[in-house]
């Protein structure tokens, strides 16, 4: 595998998994959040973000961590991906993961985030996670419906499944 999308709800463990997978595959990690957010949590112009993501997707190897399927070259990323990993965890797991991350990193900029985007508590973000299964998940399911037969969709319903999968990468 040279091009893998890692998708799912915030707080599910996508970034931790994507970083470990990229290391095991010896390919670059692309944090879509890092490319999307501008300093101070400002959103980019859609055209600029789409151009950036088109350039990233064209590269020969990557593990991409993030969703942004409605724009940002979402269809091109899906077409170029050789596999898709989907974190389909329960709401409580995602909320607890996000809260742990906020407490641990509050006031600092995580390595996978853009400069000037300090970790903070944000009620809007918590609401996004709370409503993710009803509002965002259906769009991902539709997005996955367009996968080709040669593109495996690996679905994790727990972090333990993700850890077990990583333990077996490169051992076959």
Write a structural description.
With 172 residues, the chain is α/β, with parallel strands linked by helices. The protein has a single domain, classed as P-loop containing nucleotide triphosphate hydrolases (Rossmann fold, 3-Layer(aba) Sandwich), CATH 3.40.50. The chain has eight helices and five strands, in the order βαβααβαβαααβα. The protein has helices at residues 14-25, 32-36, 46-58, 74-80, 91-105, 123-135, 137-145, 159-168; strands spanning 3-8, 29-31, 62-65, 83-87, 153-156. Strands 2-3-1-4-5 form a five-stranded parallel β-sheet, sandwiched between helices. α3 (46-58) packs parallel to α4 (74-80) and α5 runs antiparallel to α6 (123-135). The longest helix has 15 residues, at 91-105.
Shape: globular
Number of domains: 1
* Rg value: 15 Å
User: What kind of oligomer do you see?
Assistant: single chain
Name of the CATH homologous superfamily: P-loop containing nucleotide triphosphate hydrolases
């Amino acid at each position: 595998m040279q091009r893998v999308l890692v998708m799912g709800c915030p707080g599910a463990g996508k970034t931790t998994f994507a970083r470990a997978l990229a290391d095991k595959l010896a390919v670059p990690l692309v944090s879509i959040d890092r490319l999307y957010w501008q300093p101070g949590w400002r959103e980019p112009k859609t055209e600029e973000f789409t151009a950036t993501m088109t350039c990233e997707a064209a590269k020969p190897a990557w593990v991409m961590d993030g969703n942004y399927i409605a724009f940002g070259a979402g269809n091109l990323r899906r077409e170029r991906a050789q596999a898709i990993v989907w974190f389909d965890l329960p709401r409580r797991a995602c909320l607890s993961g996000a809260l742990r991350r906020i407490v641990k990193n509050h006031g600092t900029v995580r390595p996978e985030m853009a400069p000037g985007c300090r970790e903070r508590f944000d009620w809007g973000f918590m609401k996004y996670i709370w409503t993710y299964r009803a509002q965002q998940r259906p769009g991902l399911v539709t997005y996955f419906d367009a996968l080709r037969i040669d593109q495996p969709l690996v679905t994790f319903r727990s972090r333990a499944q993700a850890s077990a999968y990583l333990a077996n990468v490169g051992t076959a």
